[in-house]
Every structure is written in C-alpha cells, then in structure tokens.
Amino acid sequence: MLLRLLLPYARPYGRDVALVAALQVAQTGAALYLPYLSADVIDNGVLTGDTGYIWRLGALMTGVSLAQLLCAVGAARVAARMSTFLARDLRAAMFDRVQSFSARELHRFGAASLTVRTTNDIQQVQMLVQTTLTFMVTAPIMCVGGIVFALAQDAPLSLLLVVVAPVLGGLAWAVLRRMTPLSVTLQDTTDSVNRIMREQIIGLRVIRAFVREEHEHTRFEVANDLLTDTSARVGRIMALMFPLVTAVASVSSVAVVWFGAGRVESGAIGVGALSAFLGYVLQILGAAVMMTYLLRMLPRAEVCARRIGEGLATESTVAPPAAGVAALPHPARVELRDVEFRYPGAEAPVLAGVSLTAGPGETVAVVGGTGSGKSTLLSLIPRLADPSAGAVLVGGSDVRRLDRALLSRTVGYVPQRPYLFSGTVASNLHYGDPDATEDDLWRALDIAQARAFVEALPEGLAAPVTQGGTNLSGGQRQRIAIARALVGRPDVYLFDDSFSALDYATDARLRAALTRETSGSTVVIVAQRVNTIRGADRIVVLDEGRVVGTGTHRELFAGNPTYREIVLSQLTETEAA
To answer: Which of 434, 432, 403, 404 shows the shortest CA–CA distance to 418?
Structure first.
C-alpha cells in the first residue's frame, strides 16, 4: 500500500531521487574506502616508520572524509526537500478529495479521522520517505560492500558474519510482527482522542450547562489512557530493540578482536588488515542499525499510508457530470420526483417517495417532526448529497447533470447551522459572490436585518470573524448567513430553519424584506415556527420521511392531523385559525 500510494506522487521528483541516490553512492563509497586507507597507513606507514607516507595518506583520508561529509549533507538536504514537497502534494490531494465528499462520505469517515489522515498520517509518511531516501542506498551498499571488503581482508574471519546475520534478521522479524498491529491501534486511538477533543471543544457550553465535565473527563481519560498505553508498548519494543542491536555490535566487535588477534599472531593477516576488518564489521552493523530505524517507522507509516489511500480512493457519490448543462431555460423551477435517500448501512431510508414542485414566485414550506427528513430533503437540491432513488430537478434538469458552478449560482442555501469562516464579515459574504461590490454586500445585509449591527462594529465590513463565528451571537450568525445567500441574487432560495435564533420582531421584518426581494424567485423554507411558514403558498408535511400532506395553512390545519398537532403545540385554536 505504501508504494502504491507514493509512486504517483514521487514521479515528478524523479531527478531529486536520482540525485540523492548518486550522492549516497558517492558518500558510501568514500566510507568504504576509509578503512582500506587506514589499513594501508598502519601496515605501510606506522609499522615501517614512514612519516611521509603517513602524511600523504592522511591528507588523502582527510579529502575522502570531507567528500563523504559533503555528499551526506547534500543527500540529506535534497531528501528533506523532496519529502516535504511530496507531503505537500499529498495534503493538497487529500484536501481536494475531502472537498468533493458528500454527506455520505463525511458521515462514513468523520471529521476527526479526516483531519488526522490529512495531517498526522501524512507527516508519518513524510518522515519515512525522508529517512528512506537518506538510507535507501547507504544501508544496502554499506552492507554488501562491507561484506565484500571484509572477505578481501580475511575470509575465515568473515565467518563471524554468518553468525551475526541471522540474529539481526530475527530481531527485525520480531519487531515487524509486534509493531504492525500496534500501529493500527495507535492510529485508531489517535482518531478517538481527536474526535473526543473536538466534540468537547465544540460542545463546551452544553457540557457546562448539564454539568457533565466529570463524564467528559472520564471519556477523554479512557481514550487518552489507551493511546498512552499503546504508545508505551511501542516505546518498550523500540527501547529493547536498540540496546539489543548495540549489544550484537559490541559482541561482534569483541569477537573480531579476539579471533583477529590470533590471526595476527599466526601471521595470517597484518594489524592494518585487522583494523580494516573491524571497521568493515562496524559499517555492516551500522547499516543494520539504519535498517532497524527504518523498521521502527515502517509499520506505522504503512498503516498511515493505508488510511490516506483509503481517503484518496473514496469516490464521492456526488460525482461531477461528464458534460454538465451550462444554461437553464427555466432556472427558478424546483422539482423532486419520487425521491428516496438512505445513508449507507441504514435500515430505513431517511426519505421515501417524496415528490414536490416549487416554481417562480412561490414560497413552499416543509414542516414535520424531529427526524422527519426536512433538512435532508433541502440538502438534495443544491446537491450536497444525491438521492438513492428518484430525481431532483432544478430548471427542468437533473441536478446530477448540472455544472456545479451553475447550480451554485442558481441556488442560494442557508444551512440549519450557519457556519462562518475565520476572516472578516466581507470575506464571509463574498462566498455568495466573489465579485460582489461593497454596495452589494450592504444591500444583502440590509435585507437580512444585519446592517445595523454590522455598522455598529468598529471596523464594519472589515470586522474580524472567528472560526465558526463564535464572536457573534446566534442571531447575528444566522443573519450574516442569510445575507451571504442573498449576495449572489440566486433564482432559488433554500432556508433550513434559518430564522430560529431571531426574535419575533426581527423575524417578521426579515420575512417581509425577503418577500419583496424574492418575489420572482423560488423559495423553499424549512422551519419549526408555524408563524414563519403559515403565509407560504404551499406547505408540505413530512412524517418519518414521507409526505403526509400538502396544501395551505388553512387546508392542512383543517384536514391534516400531523400538521394540526404541530400547530397546536405552538398556537391556540384562535391564533391558528
């Protein structure tokens, strides 16, 4: 999975990979040459007392060491740059993919998991790529070259490597066997901690209102303890691994000196050759340490790559049309034909057999109890999700065939929970129309009954807005969200319980202003307040995802039990008449 994920993103950096490989070959070759020079200095300089020879080879060794250093630094810098850019490309691809997700995919993954996959998981892969680029040539060449040069110095003494190799291989296998399942658990528990933390930050007021701090603290503690325990187990394995590899290296060095001394004493090899042999053994063991470090990172990076790949491979159920309709003959008409919507894995559909129409100059209201599917119905019109069956049409064309930009210009949507982005009032309003002038923004604010409070802000349209609009009241956020939809002057307006945070006087003024502004447009409103929708041209009543009534307020109040129950929960018989 790791290679499958990385190869397409690594291709643009092929030159960097080749440059790193060339530098690594050069620096590894220099490293392997140094013990040979050292043996030569000892045997032909030190033991013979040839000072000139020592100086000449010393100067050569200094030059080789400097070249090795420069190549190693160069390779590390190129590897760091390349891995950083590759991670940037992965994040951009993941972001673009998430941006295309519909409600189904977001529901499947969850916001916390997608955030971790885009940040922490990609960072883990980046670290592995950088480390691999640094060691990918060095370790195998150092290992193979070290064995070859060690054999050249003394073949019988090289039999020690036959003993060391299986020990190191066994250690590597043991680490991989234990680390892979732990890495899966580690990433899953990281997701859990992030999800709980996110929930607690967003729902802090609710937690305090219901005095649930202790309960939430316990939830977080359980997830945090599991993450800590898993991390500690990973740490214990690695804490054991490095000392064991070091111990193998130390024992190997002692064995080389022990048996090598006998070989020197018998005259089979010289002191310099023994010194070089020891150097090559240490280089081989150094390569083993490099591979151990890679093995430490590999299982977790593999799990992260699988999770990233899972996100990138997920196709949105709201796929863009191959050749989108670029113009609509009747842009203001909205129609739902026998629509069904079902979340993946759900036993029952959220909507079933829903049909309705709304034309220019009409206001159609959708009412129903909690969980009846009102918001889901509205979200299908701007194509935030696609129906499981049936069709949604805007301007006579199926929304699945419409160009996204055209649909966005045609339909203005105000969600149930108005979300504002960090920036300014103006930057949030420009989501409705990036080319809107300042006069356009003030016009929209005026209709949305938001002009007065925005003018009262010290910086007006340039006033800062925090993430989620938390520095504004609920009613202010709703009015800015309504203004955002008005800025683009769309043909269809969708209001999903968009007046719930407004007082009755502001609600009445806003609805009167909207009636004038949207006189030639199609308006579909979802609302809990009966007074908000009683003047609608048509009211559609939903119950458990099905249409159980359609008509005016008077018709439904007189003949529809579900609507009558909703009305009488808010108004008296006299007020409702």
So the answer is: 432
375, 526 Cβ separation under 8 angstroms: yes
Q: How far is CA 528 from CA 166, 419, 523, 541, 556, in A?
A: 72, 20, 16, 12, 16
Q: Which CATH number fits domain 2-313: 1.20.1560.10, 3.40.1620.10, 3.20.20.30, 3.65.10.10?
A: 1.20.1560.10
Q: Determine contact, residues 493/361, Cβ cutoff 8 Å.
A: no
CA atoms within 13 A on the CB side of 203: 13
Residue 34 has pLDDT above 80, yes or no: yes
Q: Pairing relation of β-strands 492-496 and 411-414? A: parallel
Tell me the C-alpha distance between 293 and 241, whole Å: 10
Burial group, residue 435, by CB count within 10 angstroms (0-12, 13-18, 19+) = exposed
β-sheet bridge partners, residue 39: none
Q: Which of 322, 324, 343 is nearest to 388 (CA)?
A: 343
Q: What is the rounded CA–CA span in Å between residue 485 and residue 432?
A: 5
For range 354-372, the mean pLDDT: 90
CATH-assigned architecture of domain 334-340+351-576: 3-Layer(aba) Sandwich (3.40)
The answer to whether the CB of 466 falls within 8 A of the CB of 521 is no
Q: Tokens 């732990």 — which residue?
A: 182
**How many whole angstroms separate alpha carbon 530 and alpha carbon 550?**
15
Q: How many residues does the chain have?
A: 577
- Paired with 356 in beta bridges are 336
Question: Comparing 274-283, 397-406, 537-546, which segment has the lowest mean pLDDT?
Answer: 274-283
- Residues 6 or more apart in contact with residue 318 via CB below 8 angstroms: 100, 102, 383, 384, 385, 386
CA 379 to chain centre: 24
Q: Which amino acid is at 116?
A: V
Residues of the chain with CATH 3.40.50.300: 334-340+351-576
**Residues 85-133: pLDDT tens digits?**
999 999 999 999 888 887 778 878 888 788 888 988 899 889 888 888 8
